Amino acid sequence: MRRQTIDPRIRAKVIATYGNRCWLNMPGCSITATEDDHIIPFSHGGRDTVANIRRACKHCNAMRQD
Questions:
Q1: How far apart are alpha carbons 10 and 63 in whole angstroms?
Q2: Domain range summary for the chain, segments of one domain joined by +
Q3: The whole model's pTM is what?
């Protein structure tokens, strides 16, 4: 599976719409989002859209996996 880069314009819209705090808030969350997280994973057909992306901290994004 390829590791894709989110278009900076999409990322900016995601941050403007939902903020830049981790949306997952799992145990150990660092709160500050540094990564893009697909709600429906890219590997399962999720798209790079504002509706399907939220910001997540590295810790929570790694815990979530696909």
A1: 24
A2: 8-64
A3: 0.84
